[in-house]
Write a structure and sequence with these properties.
alpha/beta, 9-stranded mixed beta sheet
Length: about 200
């Protein structure tokens, strides 16, 4: 009986926040951000090199500003009245640039789209970013892959892939946004731990 009640409540929630059922509903969608809010990951000693953050690529289904959610396998849906401020891959790129700049590891961090030369290039693939709902609640799933490339050698110096799950405190888009930002921060901090090793090994 509890499971049935929870499932019914979830269905009502998704009808109101995702499908937007109701004649005459014209309010603007709520716009959400992916932003770096880390307390800092300052290195004891910088690496003395420059790095370029390549514009992140996104897998199909996650290439627009629409916020994705899933209730069953093989079916991806989007909230009607909530969206990202930009395509999530672009938000990840901006947040990653800011976060790398704050580490103190690099002489300069070149943002996506810039033509400034850099010794290293960081490629990022957004594999998935979605909120999954079931009878127990919801959680964010973030799939992301990083690859460090030496610009002179044109070869990969290291790669890292994450598939991170973070429970949502509330079963709505706002709860999913908070969980998504937590997942992104966790992924970035793991990346910052391995980047110096990849660069040191390439010298």
């Amino acid at each position: 009986m509890r499971l049935l009640s929870g499932s019914l409540g979830m269905a009502i929630l998704l009808l109101t926040t995702a499908c937007g059922i109701g004649p005459g509903r014209t309010e603007a969608p709520t716009v959400h951000m992916l932003e770096w809010s880390g307390a800092g990951h300052n290195a004891a000693e910088g690496l003395g090199v420059t790095i370029r953050v390549n514009p992140p690529a996104a897998y199909p289904g996650y290439q627009s500003a629409r916020m994705a959610y899933r209730q069953e396998r093989h079916t991806l849906r989007y909230f009607a009245y909530n969206r990202w401020a930009d395509a999530p891959a672009r938000l990840v790129g901006a947040a990653l640039t800011e976060a790398l700049s704050g580490t103190g590891l690099f002489q300069d961090v070149v943002p996506p789209g810039s033509r400034i030369d850099a010794a290293y290039r960081l490629d990022t693939d957004l594999v998935r970013l979605e909120q999954r709902f079931d009878a127990d609640g919801s959680e964010i799933h973030l799939g992301i892959r990083y690859r460090l490339v030496g610009q002179a050698s044109r070869r990969s110096l290291g790669s890292l892939q994450h598939d991170i799950t973070v429970p949502s405190a509330t079963d709505d888009p706002r709860g999913g946004v908070i969980a998504a930002n937590r997942a992104m921060r966790e992924s970035f901090e793991d990346l910052f731990d391995v980047l110096p090793n990849w660069i040191d090994a390439s010298r």
